[in-house]
Amino acid sequence: MALVVFLLAYLVRRKLDAANAWSSERLWRSVFHSGSSVRAGSEAATWKGLIIITVPALLLAAGEWYLHVLGWRMAAYPLEFLLMVLLMGAPGWRPRLDVYRESWARGDMQAAWHHIRDSLPADEQGTAASPDEMHRVLSRTLMVSLFERFFLIAFWFVVGGIAAAFFARGVIALRDHWPQTAARPGFAALAEVVNWLPSRLLSFTFGVAGDLAGWMKEGKRVLFDVALKTDQVLMGAASAALTGYALDPERFSRIHPDEWADFGGRSLDAIRDLLNRSMLVWICVFALLVIAGVM
């Protein structure tokens, strides 16, 4: 039944993302802002944010266990479905990417940058000195965002149930939205811990869902480098698993200069298709786990 809950939530979330609806970011921000007051000199403390996400996660775990003991496990599925719909999703990307694609095709790189700038992390907004770098920054941000809003939630839902999925998503939200900026590096470090295993599992999936031969040459290296961060793991594996230099704009422009105007759209399509195929692989693996009685 857990697989059915995830599939239904995933399909509904994709529809909501297409309609740019039901973003949970505002809810996370409002919760954190309402409980984030700290004394002067304690701005870097992370304990208060962790309590805000840990207490509900523990309550979810306890409620799930209690219903299982009573034999009413089915009663938890509607709540799990609703929470999964809220925890997953990245609404707002599609319209920005559509305008970015059109601007790139016209050769208007300034307009392309203007439309995607606010979607990038604050520390990345000043790094796009060229179209090549702009596209790499966008690709990296998009891939990490979709990983953390779908694959990360799916992984922890399978491993630890709705409580683990809630906690993992809460850590990402703390990193992005905690009002005290001095505490965010601590949350970012915890996010890397939460991301570590699922990001490497997804990087392996890129090889299965993409160009396996190319991934075997370059992408597999990221699996064995424990110090790489999430964005480095995903970009390295995806670049190796995609053909046609989809994540290497500089090399593409040298080899196919006449097709440069199409590069932005083709690259985004390649990323989208790779992630969609990878999710299909994960769903198939989940189904096999259900058949084997593991889930």
UniProtKB/TrEMBL annotation:
Keywords: Membrane, Transmembrane, Transmembrane helix
Residue intervals passing through the bilayer: 150-168, 274-294
InterPro entries recorded: AmpE (IPR031347), Beta-lactamase_Reg (IPR052966)
One Pfam family in the UniProt entry: AmpE
Domain of life where this protein originates: Bacteria
Record's protein name: Regulatory signaling modulator protein AmpE
Annotated organism of origin: Marinobacter iranensis
Gene: ampE
